[in-house]
């Protein structure tokens, strides 16, 4: 049984289905996300595709600062996604609230509501940046940022 | 048919219909990607998808027991129906047990299983998809039934093996040609591809009948859909175009696979170059075709 589970987990890397959630974004990130489905970027060559129900999805791509009316929906969409799942925060607003960080109607970044696995900052992020972020999540390309080690923060 | 060849042809049929169908689906996706000038997914992508879905969590969105069992029913009935199709020669492996009526019953069970799942899943999109699928099934299954009955009248037997043997021996006549054309024109609706994928319409009703399914159940219904496509292509290529057939089991299987690949290629071309029909347009098309195919029965009764 565990052998079959292992196969299924290995296959997860080769076919990640994304469900797009808009929590009050200005549509900039949404259009850039649609760009990666076009023939020029063609994300289907990694086995990814956009699905229309959170029950089919492996990755939730959330764009926009989480506005107060959408908090419950974000929670229920997270519950409706079957395990194992990852959450990707797309754009500056979803990462930390963006320019609306102290607005009265905005809760803040997505990580204040549900746990986030991957941040793709940018306003809006370029399609190349989205592809790079997703490739990092899948392990295709290596992380370019040095891991936070003692010499960076001053210790010897 | 002795026991060894029966066992072999059972294995070959189940292998072709159930295990090779994701490969054909991968072929479809690759062809569609090339038409849209994309690179497309790797050819084994559909296997990855099914295996991945098998390992996902199975969310119980409703407590209805029908919702729990009917996805598995669809895969089982596809496997049963595949045993009534001749792949390795002129006779299907279970020729002795079943005739065209049993075949039509089992094929209908696949659609019914999907409709039951959708109706039990308590989602408005699924209800819309289920009612559309029911209308589509009621309008398209008669065409296949009428075409098979035309063959039965011509051959003087209800067994699929006898129909294929008669057709292979005596060659086409007017009524069988008419039936073949009708089945070919309804093939896109039988396998549920784009001009007729009204019940699953992804952009419109968010995959309608499949919307509440997750994990293994979704994998089973996806697999059943892929296997259904291969099965109906086999029905068309093995019953209505049973040439050429040799004495060798392996050669016959390879010829069948080659014919199925060509038919799937043609249907993918139709799929990627056409828009989706509305349900009333699809019903009109299917009912016209059914009325047209009725003439095949009269011609067969006249003996031409």
Concise summary:
The complex is a heterodimer of chains A (156) and B (304). Chain A is an alpha/beta fold and 156 residues long.
Helix content of chain B: over 70%
| Uncertain ranges of chain B | none
Instruction: Please write the string of helix (H) and strand (E) elements of chain B.
Output: HHHHHHHHHHHH
- CATH architecture grouping of chain A: 3-Layer(aba) Sandwich
**Most extensive chain interface and residues per partner:** A-B, 25 and 32 residues
- Contiguous uncertain segments of 5+ residues of chain A: none
* Chain oligomer state: heterodimer
- Secondary-structure-based class of chain A equals alpha/beta
Domain count of chain A: 1
What's the total count of β strands of chain B? 0
The CATH class of chain A, by name, is Alpha Beta
Q: Shape of chain A from CA axes?
A: globular
**Number of separate strands of chain A:** 7
* Total of DSSP H or I helical runs spanning 4+ residues of chain B: 12
The end-to-end span of chain B amounts to: 32 Å
Using only CA atoms, what is the Rg of chain B? 19 Å
Specify the helix fraction band of chain A.
25-40%
Shape of chain B: globular
Report the sheet-strand fraction of chain A: 15-25%
